[in-house]
Amino acid sequence: MSASAGTVASVLCFIASVMTLLIGLIHFVQKVEDLDVKFSDCSFFQEDCNGGWRNVFTFRPNVFFDLWTPMVFGLLGIGLHCRFVYHKIVLNYMTYAFFMIVTALFANVGYVGLCGVFTAAFSVACALVCVIVRLMGEMGIVLLDLGK
Question: What is the three-state SS of the chain?
Fold first, then answer.
């Protein structure tokens, strides 16, 4: 049984998205590992007693996006292989390549040290595979059947 070039590209991009999700999880754990809730050290209305907690769990855009970007991109990349997400993000392997480049630049390189850099390099390689597959004539995206 041989796999089409589109299937190979989809599998590689799926692996890159799983790696991105793992980077997001590791980044989150690194952010919260020393976080604790102060109770007895605080007065009832003491300002900033648990400021460390608020600095992680916040909707301030610069903190929020920094914390959640790798996980969101990882989940989106995995979700591309679900029919309800696929048509909303990628249309063909050129847009898939663009998605993988954006993932590399914004959700891989700046996170979790060399692991993020290597994952970004893999994501860029996946983008190149997508471009090659599109140039080979593949018009649509091969969705992986994750339900089997």
Answer: CCCCHHHHHHHHHHHHHHHHHHHHHHHHHHHHCCCCCCCCCCCCCCCCCCHHHHHHCCCCHHHHHHHHHHHHHHHHHHHCCCHHHHHHHCCCHHHHHHHHHHHHHHHHCCCCHHHHHHHHHHHHHHHHHHHHHHHCCCCCCCCCCCCC
Predicted model pTM: 0.86
pLDDT in tens, 90-112: 889 999 999 999 999 999 999 99
**Phi and psi based region of residue 42 (left: phi greater than 0; alpha: psi -120 to 50; beta: remaining):** beta
Structure tokens at 38: 């102060």
Q: Distance between CA 74 and CA 15 in Å, rounded? A: 10
- Residues 125-147: tens digit of each pLDDT: 999 999 999 999 988 888 887 65
Alpha-carbon distance 58 to 147, whole Å?
35
